[in-house]
Write a structure and sequence with these properties.
This protein is mainly α and about 80 residues long. Helices cover about 80% and strands about 0% of the residues. Helix 1 (about 5-35) packs antiparallel against helix 3. The chain is elongated and about 60 Å long.
């Protein structure tokens, strides 16, 4: 007999992980763009890169998890 796999938790976990990756990448790109400006601001120069990256990862986690929950909820309602 085949095992029935519940795909909802897997979808939420996968989207959360992708959100963390994309959040870290986006925050790194934002820091790089800020530092390559002709006249960077004091805020740009004083920011902690690790803290900025962790903030981006946290936002990506919540965005990915929220998107996955919304998508699976909508799929459940349709079918």
């Amino acid at each position: 007999m085949g095992r029935k796999i519940n795909r909802i938790p897997l979808t939420i976990i996968l989207c959360s992980v992708l959100g963390v990756i994309f959040g870290a990448t986006a925050s790194q790109a934002e820091m790089n763009q800020c530092l390559t400006e002709e006249n960077p601001t004091n805020q740009c120069l004083m920011q902690n890169p690790v803290k900025k990256r962790i903030e981006g990862m946290g936002m990506g986690l919540f965005a990915g998890a929220g998107a996955a929950v919304g998508a699976t909820w909508r799929m459940k309602m349709k079918g």
